[in-house]
Fold:
Amino acid sequence: MLGSLFCAYAITRFGSRVPLLICASLAALSAFAMLGLDISHNAGLVIAGFGIHGFFVNAVQTSLYGLCAYVYPTEVRATGMATALAFGRMGGILSAFIGAAVITFGGLSGYLVMLGAGMAAAVIALLLVRSHLPGKKSSARLATANAH
Structure:
């Protein structure tokens, strides 16, 4: 929840591109950073690492709904949002099975690589989005430009 609130505030102020890219990058980095930890000697650090990772993943995941509503044109917004929600639900269901399989065959390191790679893919996808939510500064600049 805190990650969502943090990202929502940052998006309101700066727009969605930079905060989402920062949060997705830090989510990927936090997963990859935990690869060097030995869980038998650093269980507390691994738990804290997952807390940090969850903070940034949740920030990105929940903020994407606002971006999704902004990106889709009005004529298809409801269909686009419903499709995004459906894929999100399918991902939530499948992730339990895929995560268990990765942990079974790859252990903690395999799981962390999967989490980091997933967020790295999110960074790339966010870079490809052409239209991001404007922030307060951008909105004020546009209003001033339109007034003249």
Notes: The chain has one domain: 2-134. The CA atoms of residues 8 and 45 lie 27 Å apart. The chain has five helices and no strands.
